[in-house]
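INSTRUCTION: Work out how this chain folds

Fields: amino acid sequence; protein backbone structure tokens

Chain under study, with its fold:
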Amino acid sequence: FQTASLVKVRNDAIDDHKTCALKHNLDEDPISLNEAGKRYGKANKGLETAVLAPLKETLGKEIKIVAAHYCLINGRYFAHVVLKQRQKVVSVLMTPKENYTGTVDDVIACGTSGDLQVACFETDRYSLFVVSNKPEAENLVIARTVSNSIREHILKSEPSV
């Protein structure tokens, strides 16, 4: 079940993938995830490790990080880890969750845009998206592979109050 608010955030994640990962054409220079961890939430720092570690276990050397930073698109900030696997670009995007009641506990396919597939899941505080032009099943495998690692990373970084 997707609320209108989640759809808007998902569309911003798609725009970020297109504008940042594919075209490298942002209006504002991104900052490092370490810097974002100091300014905007500790879960940003080290996100790239939480993303890459489980993927390396399952995919080995065929997946690599191209970039990891904190960027602005459509007025929304995303921690953005850009990966490449067999010439396909994959974005893992995390943004602070907005005040809506819907929660996506499971990793689900949550939309398409042209040839792009989007998978999404949430934690208490963040909405996460995996965007790529891989087939839906492969995109979901990547999202499911990183979801537990990212959830653990967030809990260690920002323990519940």
